[in-house]
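DM from R.C. (forwarded with permission)

"hey, sorry to bug you on a friday — could you get me a structure for this? deadline for the figure draft is monday and I only need the backbone to look sensible"
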Amino acid sequence: MSVWEPNGIFGTTIETNRDIPDISKAPRPQDRVAAMMGWQVRKFVTIEPVLDFDVDVFAEWIARIEPEFVNLGADSKDHHLPEPTVDKIMALVDKLKTYGIELREKHNLSRLKP
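My reply, with the result:
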């Protein structure tokens, strides 16, 4: 009996490329990226809530995972998290598109974009 469905898709949330203490009990972002890189299955990444990041590093990390698509969204619960600027978000979107990654923007992202 297989525990993995052949049409399944494996996903993870990666909010930033930075270590931001006391935000989450999840493994460090770089550990989640490394784990996803090891899977030869269909994958996706959710960046929500998007936290401040380094554009080139973060985009490269996401590209290394080779996801079919990326969900991108903002903090929808007003937690006052360290969010990126609109310019950084747009730069990340552009960079991910150069890698050929499909982006699916969540409706809550409109709060951060003009």
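R.C.: lifesaver. The chain has a mean pLDDT of 89.
me: no worries. The longest helix spans residues 86-98.
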